Each structure stands twice: as C-alpha cells, then as structure tokens.
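Thread amino acids onto this structure.
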C-alpha cells in the first residue's frame, strides 16, 4: 500500500502513535480494552484505530477465548520503533 498523505496524517496523530509504541511491549497481552487504558482513550476510539492499523498491515489479531490478542506485524514493529525513537529525540 503506497504511503499517501491520509496514511501519514493518521499515523502521526498522538493517540495512534502512542498505541503503536505501547504495542511494542510484548511482555503484556494486549487487548483493545487494555490498550485503550494505556493510551488514555475510549474503547470505541481504540477499536477504530485498530481497524485502521489492520488495514495498513500494522497489527494482527489472534483470538484467545472471547477476546482478541493484538500484536504488531513486522511492519508495525518497525514503525512503532521509529516513532519511539522520534519520541525519545523530542524529550
């Protein structure tokens, strides 16, 4: 999927960027509700973000009982690491 301005604008908003950086922590089992709490946004908003992430190939979902575990794809990990580096440079 080629990068266009809509994709770039979506990724560089604060909540999506924080969500990608949070998902880098593979020690936690991430669900939509736990990610919403971590990023400090509503559950419906995080579900919409995750849907957009999935469409961009950044996350995958793995069912575990009634919940879906969220994990970053290789592309998502690379982007999350880059955003994390940018956040650290701005501190």
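Threaded sequence (91 positions):
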């Amino acid at each position: 999927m080629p990068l266009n301005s809509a994709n770039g604008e979506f990724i560089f908003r604060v909540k999506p960027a924080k969500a990608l950086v949070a998902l880098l922590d593979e020690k936690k089992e991430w669900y939509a509700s736990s990610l919403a709490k971590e990023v400090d946004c509503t559950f419906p908003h995080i579900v919409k973000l995750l849907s957009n992430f999935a469409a961009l190939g950044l996350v995958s979902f793995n069912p575990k009982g009634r919940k879906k575990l969220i994990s970053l794809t290789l592309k998502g990990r690379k982007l999350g690491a880059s955003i994390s580096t940018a956040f650290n440079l701005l501190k």
